[in-house]
Amino acid sequence: MNGIHVLIIEDNQLNFELAADLLEANGCTVQQAQSAEEGLDLARASSPDLVLMDFSLPGMDGLCATRALKSDPRTRHLPVIAVTAHAMKGDEEIARSAGCDGYLTKPIDTRTFIPTLARFLEATGTCHST
Q: Which of 47, 66, 93, 114 is the least crowded, having the fewest Cβ atoms under 10 Å away?
């Protein structure tokens, strides 16, 4: 996943650090936004290869932020993967209906996180090798 730029929109520092450490160890560059509003600004400014979106954010939630990304011509092409503790029946469908392209639950499984993201990126044509 060398050279992939990932924007993580996550307000919990420990969750961010775990995901960032895994991504950086696999050659990704990582940016953090701690609110949906900050994430929207960063996504527009930096056009990351992938957005990892938490749903429980202060202020605007991740579902609204995903809808905003997908409705903006500047960011609608960005792949968004929900990374959330919302893991009840129907939550994945809610995420997808908001515009998420993928769905992962917390806590992050450190053994499968990178391979799962790599498969997703390969499927979307963003990354051709891991």
A: 93
Nearest to 32 by CA among 55, 59, 51, 60: 51
25 CB neighbour count, 10 Å cutoff: 10
Q: Is 64 in contact with 85 (CB distance < 8 Å)?
A: no
Contact 36, 72 (CB under 8 A): no
Judged against a pLDDT cut of 50, whether residue 85 lies above it is answered with: yes
Three-state DSSP class for residue 41: helix
- CATH fold of 5-120: Rossmann fold (3.40.50)
pTM higher than 0.70, yes or no?
Answer: yes
Give the pLDDT confidence score for residue 130 in this predicted structure. Answer: 42
